[in-house]
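Hello,

Our lab assistant flagged a job as stuck in the queue for most of the afternoon. It eventually completed. Since we weren't sure the result was trustworthy after the delay, we are filing this so someone can double-check. Below is the sequence as submitted and the structure that was eventually returned. Let us know if re-running is recommended.
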Amino acid sequence: MNATVYEKQRERLYAPLRETGEFVWETIDGDEYALADPQPISRSLRRTLQEAAERLGRVYARVVAVVRESDDKLLRQLGLPEATRGAVRLPMLGGAATVIGRFDFAATDDGVKMLEWNSDTPTSVVEAFRVNGAVCRALGLADPNEGMASGIGAAFRAAVDAYRDAGWRIDADRIAFAALDWHEEDAGTTRYLLEAAGIGGRFVPLSSLRVHRDRLCVLEEDGVTHTPIDLLYRLHALEKLAEERDHDGYPTGAHVLDLVARRKLALINPPSAFIAQTKALQALIWSLHEQRTFFTREEHDAIEAFMLPTYMDNVFHGSTPYVCKPIFGREGGAVVLYDANGEAAERDGESLYWDQPSVYQRRVELPPVRVRTLRGEVEGRLLWGAFLVGGRPSAIVARVGGRITGNAAFYAPVALQD
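-- returned structure --
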């Protein structure tokens, strides 16, 4: 298949989704993002990824439930900003740490290993739940994510019910789904979840949100009317919200988080998802595992099988290759790969997240894979994502990038092998 044929196939797959507005970020800044050739996945690997996500989700839920009741010292050690601490102490919804999250896994010779959990503001949602099925149908292939989008609605409805059962007031006409409206991926992901959730509400740009009379409100187009919000889905990380101030210096983000703590605003994902997001929690989980305390035998088995040794201090130098990661970094930001002697083998080239505390994790290699692109055949590294929705294992997604999976990584559809 030459480049021209590949380009035509790619256009056939993605033009319909682009024209309907469902997937307009199939190229990003003029560069190819979505590949036309699906990555095959065996039924066995899919089962393993889903098993790992489900079992680790239970481990995280158990730890988060305890951490939220802890004192400020532990929350500070986990890197949680002071402004978030009242909100994160709220009870979890339905026993799960988050409503929708995505685990990232490396498939190694020693089994699948979790690199991190995107529990607070996961993306690749549209790609996994909408685009993957469209690509597989167009190519006559089996979609490993078939039917899984219905789980999103069930999870969101269960979260709303849990809030209401706990005494929160949530009116359907006071539900907002918010994101940066100029950011195609964030806005598209949020609009998709608005539709899939089926709980009512509307899309609003983050720029339209205001704190008014001790409520979070939407400033309507007339520039005068402030409509209070009871429930906010936000594709906006809590560590960023905690730092946000108005142009006059007023700590608006801290005020919003205080509204959450005082039950004047419900959030999806809930604040417990933010506890799970910090990679420092991976270090805490591994420490408890090594001490052979707290966890059940089944939980210890899951941690041993699917997690990597992770610490707040560098215990690997001089003995084992390792990775240094910022605790709230995303898209490979500020990640550095080291060899056993502490020499940097590869480092992220972007400018974000370098000022954060870091964790140190035993290094594993993402498996190499060759893929066709608009620029010809290239070799990359394959990262698997496995969604956990309402505590249940869900869709699978694949990214192909470098040894560090960064913003420039490709999205690859996934097809089931017989």
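-- support follow-up --
The delay was a queue issue, not a problem with the job. The result is valid. The chain has a mean pLDDT of 96. The radius of gyration is 21 Å.
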